[in-house]
């Protein structure tokens, strides 16, 4: 059994077993486990080639771009074994460069918002690009999801995957320190998708990496995710102000549309008139996962589509989960299969530290210092019922 699989089992035995990961430690590769391969996807304006890598294992197929570490496609089977691309995206590079609302993107250095794009660390104040109303969002206007990554494939035992590396220079997007980043996308023999993030710095800085994949378990372009159900192990969430910056309070979800402790239909919750829902134009909040910060991935949530039977479970080391119900999709973008994406046609589940942590001393810290390593792991398991 590989270290990674042992880790997942330790963190979330019951759920992982249910999703078919348990017992996947045999040496033989499951069908579909070809070595990762690449093809040219496009060229940036300066001529840089962008490749699309395909990784397939255990019934899951992931397509990843060297631009932005973008998950361009995530194919998973339904209850009859028919596969669909369960992630929103584009079929060409130009759309990703010109108009992507972070479809599938690797987010850094800081996932979600930093108030006024400003924070103070060790007595120095840093100004980040303000790119979302008065705030800085997802690492600034040229964050990790818009940078070119070095990509290396690997096959380890029955696992298949990609290692993405990049050195973010000191001062990039206003953040201090040279950040050496390594992100691993891995598919296991049972088709689970694991992401490991690692980073080191040469000066004190902040780090909060995540993946901005938009899920639609019925298949991208098939319409709304309103009928999906979500169950999330979170008794609290972080309420926000009108600019979506946390107020600092960890509020109880009981009696609010934020209560997903039992599986709930998303459409109904995103339409409940509640001041917080109004601020987000739907759900666009950070849930405080009951498990807290952990060194092994612990159970976070179950997303299910009753129509196709597809089920995704997420396990993470992170203390928070940004659940964004695709509120800003407005029917102006044509996705991978050529259909327009309208409001709520996909949703994001971003494992993370809480938004604006650099300005919120009571939140778990996102400070990274030289000599220590930032580590974060999130596992997605797929099954059908
Ligand atoms: C995150 C934010 C949302 C929105 C999307 C991208 O999920 O919380 O408010 O900015 O990214 O459109």
UniProtKB/TrEMBL annotation:
Its EC number is 5.1.3.3. Residues 1-29 form the signal peptide. It catalyses: alpha-D-glucose = beta-D-glucose. Keywords: Carbohydrate metabolism, Isomerase, Signal. It is an enzyme of class 5 (isomerase). Pathway: Carbohydrate metabolism; hexose metabolism. Pfam families: Aldose_epim (PF01263). Belongs to the aldose epimerase family. NCBIfam families: PRK11055.1. This is Aldose 1-epimerase. It comes from Streptomyces chryseus.
